[in-house]
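User: structure tokens for this one?
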Amino acid sequence: MKALSDPTRLQLLQLVAAHPGGRACICDLTTPLGVTQPTVSHHMKLLAESGFVTRERQGKWTYYTMRPEALDDLGQRLANLNHPCS
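Assistant:
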């Protein structure tokens, strides 16, 4: 959940999910957010390490894809907060 606590990371996830084919390059993400490439790379690295996106290197570019199952898992964990521990 810590990875999703930053508003920039949430915006990045939205941008990747909305990108045609659900796959986006760092170069596709810098302009919409108005931040530098190193900043986007840092945030995307944290999202990848947290399992919310996958990354695939092609030449000098890295492409990111959402992992919907990671969000489903997070939703399930949050839903389980309503149930007392056994």
